[in-house]
Amino acid sequence: LAPVTVEAPGDSRICTEIVDARNGKVTQLHGAGVCADADAGRRLADAVERACEGAQWLALCGSLAEGLPVETYAALIQRAHARGIRVALDTSGEALSAGWRAAPEILRVNAHEARETGLDPDLRQLDAATLSIVSDGAGEIAVHAADYVFRIRPPRVRARNPIGCGDAMLAGLLSRIDACGIADALRFATALASADAEAECAGRPDLKRARALETKVVIR
Fold it and tell me: Taking the model in full, what pTM does it have?
């Protein structure tokens, strides 16, 4: 994907990751990042809408830059829906609370983020049209669709770096869901997240390895 940038005051956030090769523990050091103002927020929303031209899905991921209102993702969901574009939301805190009320088609969070926001971890409060995915580290993943509840057990892998696994899962899901349906898309998404956990660098899963792990994903 080609980057689309919007300038704002401050320095772009740099995330430094320290991996202990002896025990696999990962430490992240996050810089403060930019501080958006109202003008930057408007330019960001306009840039996202322009970038969505011809898209089927919009993925809204991560924390909001300081200065952006907590309703930013909710407003972007409404803009996308007005253009007939479906939305996947992966965030936390107040941005999550505001965003899920705008009824994204997919919501991906972990159990801690759900509880922190006051959501029941099985997300029964959500609109039935929302496909909700709740992960819990390397444990079982709960997925709630309109008429189904899926329980997914990831394959056992030697985890080297868990950072970015949720992002990999969402990417895998969006790459398959329209062509393959929910169950097959969830299987590939879980395999891609597992392959990402095996990789030393976050966000660098091996696609061939992910395809091999698909057969080891258990869904009921």
Answer: 0.86
Residue type, 183: A
Measure CA of the first residue to CA of the last residue in the chain; give whole Å.
Answer: 34
**Which string of b and e fits 44-80 if b means at least 16 CB within 10 Å?**
bbeebbeebeeeebbbbeeebbeebeebbbbbbbebb
Rounded CA gap, 92 and 137, in Å? 16
Map tokens 């698909």 to a residue. Answer: 214
Structure tokens at 166: 């949720």
Reported as a single tens digit per residue, the pLDDT across 10-63 is 888 888 888 887 877 778 888 888 888 889 999 999 999 999 999 999 999 998
Q: How many CB atoms lie within 10 A of CB 92?
A: 18
Return the H-helix or E-strand segment holding 23. none
